[in-house]
Protein backbone atom coordinates (compact mmCIF):
# COMPACT_ATOMS: atom_id res chain seq x y z
CA UNK A 1 0.00 0.00 0.00
CA UNK A 2 2.79 2.39 0.95
CA UNK A 3 4.57 1.51 -2.29
CA UNK A 4 1.45 2.35 -4.32
CA UNK A 5 1.01 5.66 -2.48
CA UNK A 6 4.65 6.46 -3.10
CA UNK A 7 4.32 5.74 -6.80
CA UNK A 8 1.22 7.97 -6.90
CA UNK A 9 3.08 10.84 -5.28
CA UNK A 10 5.95 10.46 -7.76
CA UNK A 11 3.58 10.51 -10.72
CA UNK A 12 1.85 13.61 -9.33
CA UNK A 13 5.18 15.37 -8.92
CA UNK A 14 6.14 14.46 -12.48
CA UNK A 15 2.83 15.75 -13.82
CA UNK A 16 3.24 19.04 -12.01
CA UNK A 17 6.79 19.37 -13.30
CA UNK A 18 5.74 19.21 -16.95
CA UNK A 19 2.79 21.62 -16.65
CA UNK A 20 3.17 25.10 -18.21
CA UNK A 21 4.06 28.03 -15.97
CA UNK A 22 0.46 29.22 -15.84
CA UNK A 23 -2.68 27.16 -15.55
CA UNK A 24 -5.07 27.18 -18.48
CA UNK A 25 -8.47 28.79 -18.02
CA UNK A 26 -11.54 26.55 -17.75
CA UNK A 27 -12.91 25.67 -21.18
CA UNK A 28 -16.08 27.68 -20.67
CA UNK A 29 -13.97 30.84 -20.30
CA UNK A 30 -12.60 30.73 -23.85
CA UNK A 31 -15.65 32.50 -25.29
CA UNK A 32 -15.72 36.08 -23.96
CA UNK A 33 -19.12 37.64 -24.58
CA UNK A 34 -19.13 41.43 -24.61
CA UNK A 35 -21.58 44.16 -25.64
CA UNK A 36 -21.69 47.90 -26.26
CA UNK A 37 -24.60 50.25 -27.03
CA UNK A 38 -23.33 51.72 -30.31
CA UNK A 39 -21.32 54.56 -28.78
CA UNK A 40 -18.07 54.95 -30.69
CA UNK A 41 -15.93 55.27 -27.55
CA UNK A 42 -17.26 51.95 -26.28
CA UNK A 43 -17.09 50.35 -29.72
CA UNK A 44 -13.41 51.32 -29.85
CA UNK A 45 -12.45 50.15 -26.35
CA UNK A 46 -14.36 46.91 -26.88
CA UNK A 47 -12.46 46.53 -30.15
CA UNK A 48 -9.17 46.92 -28.29
CA UNK A 49 -10.23 44.27 -25.79
CA UNK A 50 -11.32 41.93 -28.59
CA UNK A 51 -7.92 42.18 -30.28
CA UNK A 52 -6.16 41.37 -27.00
CA UNK A 53 -8.45 38.46 -26.15
CA UNK A 54 -8.13 36.96 -29.61
CA UNK A 55 -4.33 37.26 -29.51
CA UNK A 56 -4.37 35.44 -26.17
CA UNK A 57 -6.29 32.52 -27.66
CA UNK A 58 -9.78 33.48 -26.50
CA UNK A 59 -12.78 33.87 -28.78
CA UNK A 60 -14.12 37.36 -28.20
CA UNK A 61 -17.55 38.35 -29.46
CA UNK A 62 -19.28 41.71 -29.13
CA UNK A 63 -22.98 42.46 -29.56
CA UNK A 64 -24.63 45.82 -30.24
CA UNK A 65 -27.41 46.22 -27.66
CA UNK A 66 -29.35 48.92 -25.83
CA UNK A 67 -28.08 49.76 -22.35
CA UNK A 68 -31.11 48.24 -20.63
CA UNK A 69 -30.68 45.02 -22.63
CA UNK A 70 -26.98 44.88 -21.74
CA UNK A 71 -27.79 44.93 -18.04
CA UNK A 72 -30.54 42.35 -18.35
CA UNK A 73 -28.16 40.13 -20.31
CA UNK A 74 -25.44 40.45 -17.66
CA UNK A 75 -28.00 39.60 -14.99
CA UNK A 76 -29.18 36.55 -16.92
CA UNK A 77 -25.58 35.46 -17.66
CA UNK A 78 -26.06 35.86 -21.41
CA UNK A 79 -23.15 38.35 -21.43
CA UNK A 80 -19.85 38.41 -19.57
CA UNK A 81 -18.26 41.84 -19.96
CA UNK A 82 -19.34 45.49 -20.38
CA UNK A 83 -16.56 48.08 -20.66
CA UNK A 84 -18.86 51.09 -20.69
CA UNK A 85 -20.63 52.01 -17.46
CA UNK A 86 -20.64 55.81 -17.62
CA UNK A 87 -21.15 57.26 -14.14
CA UNK A 88 -23.32 59.25 -13.57
CA UNK A 89 -24.99 59.12 -17.01
CA UNK A 90 -25.99 55.46 -16.60
CA UNK A 91 -26.78 55.49 -12.88
CA UNK A 92 -30.51 55.05 -13.42
CA UNK A 93 -29.89 52.06 -15.68
CA UNK A 94 -27.43 50.36 -13.34
CA UNK A 95 -29.05 51.10 -9.97
CA UNK A 96 -31.48 48.13 -9.87
CA UNK A 97 -28.73 45.66 -10.77
CA UNK A 98 -26.35 47.21 -8.26
CA UNK A 99 -28.94 46.85 -5.52
CA UNK A 100 -29.60 43.20 -6.26
CA UNK A 101 -25.91 42.42 -6.80
CA UNK A 102 -26.27 40.82 -10.23
CA UNK A 103 -23.50 42.90 -11.84
CA UNK A 104 -19.97 43.40 -10.49
CA UNK A 105 -17.69 46.42 -10.94
CA UNK A 106 -14.12 45.59 -11.98
CA UNK A 107 -12.31 48.94 -12.23
CA UNK A 108 -12.58 52.50 -13.52
CA UNK A 109 -11.06 52.34 -17.00
CA UNK A 110 -11.37 56.04 -17.93
CA UNK A 111 -11.32 59.34 -16.06
CA UNK A 112 -11.70 62.85 -17.47
CA UNK A 113 -14.82 62.07 -19.46
CA UNK A 114 -17.89 64.33 -19.63
CA UNK A 115 -21.42 64.06 -20.96
CA UNK A 116 -24.23 66.63 -21.13
CA UNK A 117 -26.29 68.86 -23.47
CA UNK A 118 -24.39 70.81 -26.11
CA UNK A 119 -25.19 73.55 -28.63
CA UNK A 120 -23.21 75.17 -31.47
CA UNK A 121 -21.12 78.12 -30.31
CA UNK A 122 -23.30 80.61 -32.22
CA UNK A 123 -26.34 79.30 -30.32
CA UNK A 124 -24.46 79.66 -27.05
CA UNK A 125 -23.53 83.22 -27.98
CA UNK A 126 -27.18 83.94 -28.76
CA UNK A 127 -28.04 83.23 -25.14
CA UNK A 128 -28.40 79.47 -24.69
CA UNK A 129 -25.75 78.83 -22.06
CA UNK A 130 -27.70 76.82 -19.50
CA UNK A 131 -30.43 74.17 -19.44
CA UNK A 132 -32.75 76.88 -18.11
CA UNK A 133 -32.27 78.92 -21.30
CA UNK A 134 -33.64 76.29 -23.68
CA UNK A 135 -37.34 77.10 -23.25
CA UNK A 136 -36.73 80.76 -24.16
CA UNK A 137 -35.75 79.66 -27.67
CA UNK A 138 -38.25 76.82 -28.06
CA UNK A 139 -39.43 77.98 -31.50
CA UNK A 140 -35.89 78.20 -32.87
CA UNK A 141 -35.18 74.68 -31.67
CA UNK A 142 -38.52 73.42 -32.99
CA UNK A 143 -39.01 71.97 -29.49
CA UNK A 144 -36.62 69.18 -30.42
CA UNK A 145 -33.42 67.86 -28.92
CA UNK A 146 -31.28 65.25 -30.63
CA UNK A 147 -30.18 62.06 -28.97
CA UNK A 148 -28.54 58.83 -29.97
CA UNK A 149 -29.79 55.22 -29.96
CA UNK A 150 -33.21 54.44 -28.46
CA UNK A 151 -32.66 53.31 -24.90
CA UNK A 152 -29.72 55.68 -24.39
CA UNK A 153 -31.53 59.02 -24.03
CA UNK A 154 -33.35 58.71 -20.72
CA UNK A 155 -31.59 61.72 -19.18
CA UNK A 156 -32.84 63.94 -22.02
CA UNK A 157 -36.34 62.66 -21.39
CA UNK A 158 -35.94 63.29 -17.66
CA UNK A 159 -34.95 66.91 -18.40
CA UNK A 160 -38.03 67.38 -20.58
CA UNK A 161 -40.21 65.96 -17.81
CA UNK A 162 -38.77 68.32 -15.18
CA UNK A 163 -41.30 71.15 -14.61
CA UNK A 164 -38.58 73.58 -13.55
CA UNK A 165 -37.15 73.65 -17.09
CA UNK A 166 -40.49 74.45 -18.78
CA UNK A 167 -39.87 72.03 -21.66
CA UNK A 168 -43.37 70.63 -21.93
CA UNK A 169 -44.11 69.56 -25.51
CA UNK A 170 -40.46 69.01 -26.43
CA UNK A 171 -39.39 65.72 -27.96
CA UNK A 172 -36.19 63.71 -28.21
CA UNK A 173 -35.24 62.74 -31.76
CA UNK A 174 -33.65 59.31 -31.40
CA UNK A 175 -31.52 57.77 -34.16
CA UNK A 176 -27.89 56.78 -33.60
CA UNK A 177 -24.61 58.44 -32.73
CA UNK A 178 -23.77 58.75 -36.43
CA UNK A 179 -27.27 59.98 -37.25
CA UNK A 180 -27.19 62.61 -34.52
CA UNK A 181 -23.77 63.90 -35.57
CA UNK A 182 -24.84 64.06 -39.19
CA UNK A 183 -27.77 66.24 -38.13
CA UNK A 184 -25.47 68.40 -35.99
CA UNK A 185 -23.14 68.94 -38.95
CA UNK A 186 -26.03 69.88 -41.23
CA UNK A 187 -27.61 72.30 -38.74
CA UNK A 188 -24.27 73.97 -38.04
CA UNK A 189 -23.68 74.39 -41.77
CA UNK A 190 -27.09 76.07 -42.05
CA UNK A 191 -26.51 78.12 -38.87
CA UNK A 192 -29.67 76.73 -37.26
CA UNK A 193 -30.42 76.05 -33.62
CA UNK A 194 -29.82 72.52 -32.36
CA UNK A 195 -29.30 70.98 -28.91
CA UNK A 196 -27.79 67.51 -28.72
CA UNK A 197 -25.99 64.98 -26.55
CA UNK A 198 -22.33 65.97 -26.38
CA UNK A 199 -19.50 64.10 -24.71
CA UNK A 200 -15.78 63.55 -24.45
CA UNK A 201 -13.81 61.59 -25.41
CA UNK A 202 -15.06 61.95 -28.96
CA UNK A 203 -13.73 63.45 -32.21
CA UNK A 204 -16.83 65.67 -32.30
CA UNK A 205 -14.91 67.99 -30.00
CA UNK A 206 -12.50 68.67 -32.87
CA UNK A 207 -15.00 68.34 -35.73
CA UNK A 208 -17.50 70.97 -34.57
CA UNK A 209 -17.40 74.32 -32.81
CA UNK A 210 -19.77 73.91 -29.86
CA UNK A 211 -20.22 74.55 -26.16
CA UNK A 212 -21.51 72.40 -23.29
CA UNK A 213 -24.45 73.79 -21.31
CA UNK A 214 -24.36 74.40 -17.58
CA UNK A 215 -27.33 73.66 -15.34
CA UNK A 216 -27.57 69.92 -15.97
CA UNK A 217 -26.12 68.75 -12.66
CA UNK A 218 -29.42 67.19 -11.60
CA UNK A 219 -29.35 64.87 -14.59
CA UNK A 220 -25.72 64.44 -15.66
CA UNK A 221 -23.81 65.37 -12.52
CA UNK A 222 -21.55 68.36 -11.74
CA UNK A 223 -18.80 69.90 -13.84
CA UNK A 224 -20.57 69.52 -17.20
CA UNK A 225 -21.35 65.90 -16.55
CA UNK A 226 -17.84 64.97 -15.50
CA UNK A 227 -17.77 61.22 -15.66
CA UNK A 228 -15.83 58.07 -15.15
CA UNK A 229 -16.20 54.89 -17.17
CA UNK A 230 -16.11 51.53 -15.38
CA UNK A 231 -15.63 47.96 -16.56
CA UNK A 232 -18.37 45.63 -15.34
CA UNK A 233 -19.00 41.87 -15.50
CA UNK A 234 -21.75 39.46 -14.65
CA UNK A 235 -21.80 38.36 -11.02
CA UNK A 236 -19.07 35.86 -10.17
CA UNK A 237 -17.30 36.10 -13.53
CA UNK A 238 -13.93 37.21 -12.12
CA UNK A 239 -13.75 34.11 -9.93
CA UNK A 240 -14.87 31.80 -12.74
CA UNK A 241 -12.37 33.18 -15.28
CA UNK A 242 -9.49 34.71 -13.29
CA UNK A 243 -7.13 35.22 -16.22
CA UNK A 244 -9.77 37.16 -18.17
CA UNK A 245 -10.38 38.99 -14.93
CA UNK A 246 -6.72 39.95 -14.62
CA UNK A 247 -6.73 41.53 -18.06
CA UNK A 248 -9.92 43.42 -17.23
CA UNK A 249 -8.36 44.64 -13.98
CA UNK A 250 -5.36 45.94 -15.94
CA UNK A 251 -7.18 47.45 -18.91
CA UNK A 252 -7.41 51.25 -18.70
CA UNK A 253 -7.49 54.07 -21.25
CA UNK A 254 -7.23 57.87 -21.43
CA UNK A 255 -9.09 60.59 -23.31
CA UNK A 256 -6.37 61.25 -25.91
CA UNK A 257 -6.01 57.54 -26.72
CA UNK A 258 -9.76 57.21 -27.19
CA UNK A 259 -10.11 60.41 -29.21
CA UNK A 260 -7.58 59.03 -31.69
CA UNK A 261 -9.12 55.58 -31.77
CA UNK A 262 -12.63 56.88 -32.24
CA UNK A 263 -11.36 58.95 -35.13
CA UNK A 264 -10.37 55.72 -36.88
CA UNK A 265 -13.99 54.59 -36.61
CA UNK A 266 -15.73 57.83 -37.51
CA UNK A 267 -13.35 59.45 -39.97
CA UNK A 268 -11.57 56.43 -41.47
CA UNK A 269 -14.49 54.01 -41.51
CA UNK A 270 -12.61 51.25 -39.69
CA UNK A 271 -14.32 48.43 -37.84
CA UNK A 272 -13.78 48.35 -34.05
CA UNK A 273 -11.25 45.51 -34.20
CA UNK A 274 -9.33 47.25 -37.00
CA UNK A 275 -9.25 50.49 -35.02
CA UNK A 276 -8.21 48.62 -31.89
CA UNK A 277 -5.39 46.86 -33.71
CA UNK A 278 -4.11 50.12 -35.23
CA UNK A 279 -4.22 51.87 -31.86
CA UNK A 280 -2.33 49.03 -30.17
CA UNK A 281 0.35 49.00 -32.87
CA UNK A 282 0.76 52.76 -32.49
CA UNK A 283 1.01 52.44 -28.71
CA UNK A 284 2.76 49.10 -28.05
CA UNK A 285 4.14 50.33 -24.75
CA UNK A 286 0.66 50.06 -23.24
CA UNK A 287 0.83 46.27 -23.52
CA UNK A 288 3.28 45.98 -20.61
CA UNK A 289 0.71 47.28 -18.12
CA UNK A 290 -2.32 45.70 -19.79
CA UNK A 291 -0.81 42.22 -19.86
CA UNK A 292 0.98 42.19 -16.49
CA UNK A 293 0.22 38.84 -14.86
CA UNK A 294 -1.91 37.73 -17.83
CA UNK A 295 -1.39 34.44 -19.68
CA UNK A 296 -2.77 33.02 -22.88
CA UNK A 297 -5.87 30.85 -22.66
CA UNK A 298 -3.66 27.77 -22.42
CA UNK A 299 -1.38 29.24 -19.75
CA UNK A 300 1.61 30.64 -21.66
CA UNK A 301 3.11 34.13 -21.03
CA UNK A 302 0.60 36.62 -22.39
CA UNK A 303 2.79 39.60 -23.33
CA UNK A 304 5.14 37.54 -25.47
CA UNK A 305 2.24 35.78 -27.20
CA UNK A 306 0.36 38.99 -28.00
CA UNK A 307 3.45 40.73 -29.39
CA UNK A 308 4.18 37.72 -31.59
CA UNK A 309 0.57 37.44 -32.76
CA UNK A 310 0.34 41.16 -33.61
CA UNK A 311 3.80 41.37 -35.17
CA UNK A 312 5.21 43.77 -32.60
UniProtKB/TrEMBL annotation:
Range of residues in the leader sequence: 1-23
Domain of life where this protein originates: Bacteria
Pfam family, one: OpuAC
Domain (ABC-type glycine betaine transport system substrate-binding) ranges: 32-276
InterPro entries, sorted: ABC_choline_sub-bd, ABC_Gly_betaine_transp_sub-bd
Keyword Nucleotidyltransferase attributed: no
Keywords tagged on the record: Signal
CDD domains (alphabetical): PBP2_ChoX
Name the record gives this protein: Choline ABC transporter substrate-binding protein
Gene that this sequence comes from: choX
Amino acid sequence: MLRILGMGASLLALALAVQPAGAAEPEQCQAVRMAEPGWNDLAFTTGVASVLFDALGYKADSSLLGINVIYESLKNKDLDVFLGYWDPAMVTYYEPYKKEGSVDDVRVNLTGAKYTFAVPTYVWEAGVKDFADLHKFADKFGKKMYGIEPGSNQLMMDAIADPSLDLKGWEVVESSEAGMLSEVGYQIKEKRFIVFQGWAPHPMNRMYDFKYLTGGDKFYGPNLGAATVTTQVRKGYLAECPNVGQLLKNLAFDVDFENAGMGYLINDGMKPEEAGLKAIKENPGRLDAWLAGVTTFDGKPGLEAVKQKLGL
